[in-house]
Amino acid sequence: MNFGFTEEQELLRAEVRKFLDQNCPLEEVRKLCETPEGFSRSLWERMAELGWVGLTISEEGGGVGLGWVDLVVVLEEVGRSLFPSPLLSTVLAAKAVDLNGTEAQKSRWLPGLADGSRIGAVAITGDEGRLDAAGIALEGRPDGDDFTLDGEKLLVMDAQNADILVVAFRTGSGEEDLSLAVVERSAKGLNIEPHRTMDLTRRMGRLHFDGVRVSADALLGSAGSAWAAIEHLQDCAAAAVCAEMVGAAEGALKLTTDFANQRVQFGQLIGRFQGVKHPLAEMFIDIESFKSLCYYAAWLLDECSPEAPLAVSRAKAYASESFARIGVDSVQLHGAVGYTWEYDIQLYLKRAKWARPAFGDAEHHYQRVAKLRGF
Amino acid sequence: MDFNFTPEEEAFRDEVRAFLDENLPENGTRDMEAVAEFQRRIREKRWVGFSWPKEIGGGGGSIMEQVILKEEMARRKAPALGACFMGLAWVAPALIEYGTEEQKQRFIPDILDGKYQWCTGYSEPGSGSDLASLQCRAVREGDEYIVNGQKIWTSIAMWSKWMILLVRTQTDVEAKHDGISCLLVEMESPGLTVRPIKNMAGGDMFAEVFFDDVRVPVENRLGEENQGWKVTVSALAHERSSISEVYGLTRSLERIKVLAKSCHRNGRPASEDPGFRSRFARADARIEAMRLNGMRFLTKQLRGEPLGSETSINKLHRAQLEIELGELALEIEGGLGVLVQGDSAVPDDGLWQRHALSWPEVVIGGGTPNIQKNIIAERVLGLPKD
Known about the structure:
The structure holds two protein chains of two kinds. Chain A is α+β, with helices and mostly antiparallel strands. Chain A has helices at 7-23, 26-33, 41-49, 68-80, 87-100, 103-114, 227-260, 274-302, 308-333, 345-355, 362-372; strands spanning 120-123, 139-143, 146-157, 164-170, 178-184, 190-194, 204-214, 264-265, 268-269. In chain A, 49% of the residues lie in helices and 15% in strands. In chain A, strand 2 and strand 3 form a beta hairpin. The radius of gyration of chain A is 21 Å and the shape is globular. The model of chain A has no long low-confidence stretch (mean pLDDT 97). Chain B is α+β, with helices and mostly antiparallel strands. Chain B is 43% helix and 16% strand. Chain B has helices at 7-23, 32-44, 63-75, 85-98, 101-113, 228-231, 243-262, 274-302, 312-333, 351-356, 360-363, 369-380; strands spanning 117-121, 137-141, 144-155, 160-168, 180-186, 192-197, 206-217, 221-222, 264-265, 268-269. The mean pLDDT of chain B is 93. The interface between A and B is large, with 48 and 49 residues.
């Protein structure tokens, strides 16, 4: 029995943290937020060279072939630094191809994703971030062996930077009418428009499909039978977002604890007051707890366990509920300076606002837990 | 990460299971002789005091074996490992570490056999969370200490033969933790009076204890004079994962699941109400988090890394869950929640009403939630001390 990381994983964590501390402190994050692309191509290339972009991509696809537990290590550090990059999206797009693609499809798309030369994104949820099968509205019209897509997809993470998009669409009204396909950025009739997001470290976009043609060889899996694959990808995504939430919440707690350890009022450090101390202790308790849930969910995903969906929902529900409150509480504990653009704590509050609904909010996942637990 | 057990660990688990299959009395039995016989056999297996060294009568069980034993016992809802709860939990560990050879031989075998009960004289009317401020005095007179003062919230004082007692032996000290000594006191001593206190559930599990010139032989002091504070903190290698406590909480949650199917809200089973479903899941996620936190603590212990105050995390979860599960059940019962055992309409024979009136035993005893939060804030997060 061992619920901890290996030496290699701890080493990986230390390397990622050092890389991000050196190359992308929060002042650099703020600068990147002002750029049109929202991330640094040069840092992205270096991360790809270090093998972090292809970490979970299969070896035959040009990646390192590691699992979600290893990814959690990287994403925790990425979350702690609020590092803006299309890592999460690229990893998920590659996962979709790795799990559902043919050999030809894998060799066509994975090497470019693994070496960072092409950026991936996934459009696998419904329009208000809905996660059920009925929420996926984009329509595909069969046209021989091909399909023609008309409609739109909202809230697609890293859409405007993506070269390869994994898109879920429907050809009928039921759960057995869902398909998954790769659409390249260059596809005729595809128009990508950036959203304006509260969290500037996290770019999202809207995809317009105007008669976009999807050929049969771009379908991942067979037509109409993609729901299980989509649901599994959503679980992989939710667990990955949880890992970022662990890191980001620890970042917020660290900033606020440091503040409480140097701010003096009534002649003493405010960290001495229980009104400050106790909310900080509560943050720690919650972070450690959804961290445990997140690690276990990642491990179950790697083990292909049928228990994974329940574990993912427990983790994401707890994380969404707590991190949102941590964002608010940590700004509040900073007092008036927490309200300023200048202080960094607001960046974490905004990340919490992004992460809360991403791949299912607390209410969605609690309802799913109740169902899976037979309540 | 790997959640599998070694073949040796699996073999030990099989041994425990086989033992329980053969010897465990029926759940909830009132046959005290059967329970006593079970305790005798557990004792023969050396599973009472399982974590202690073999030389003093313990079982020498490894950390992992302790977890497996406690887990299997909790899974089967077996009686406690040993009959003398406080003796096993902290009197004997303190004796092992600080006791004289004579004290060890005099008390430890009886504690293992569960011959009689021990109680704990720590809290006083003016010293609860701030325990080190205690005022109960002991003045040395020749070979004896003369004890005067009062203790309170002393669980099972009226049924105990011995008490582990903290007293002040020195008053002019700089730090209030200094000047405290630990005495082992016979409850039958002249001048010692026990007065039970009725709790809000109507039971009387705890008591006030008054000391009026009670004489305690110096040979019954545990540890050095004025060094009694550290006697209360055991350094023995217990497993501290609290994984076995998760079983009790899970059982409560399962009972709530059944309750919610039989109670109604707006003419439909309460189990279909989205609000209740959400609260059920919230509790479920926290119980699972407790289990997994425990596994992470355990991993640290197994790797020989220091396990510090982070174990307060699970104490706080447990406190909140004990309260929340009782509240959730009573709200599911709706209007019927106001009834108690003895009324023919009360659901579950009044189980949840008793639950809703008994959580302070777990939540207040052993450190209030606010004290646990102070511990985390100061010792883990490094915030200044109060």
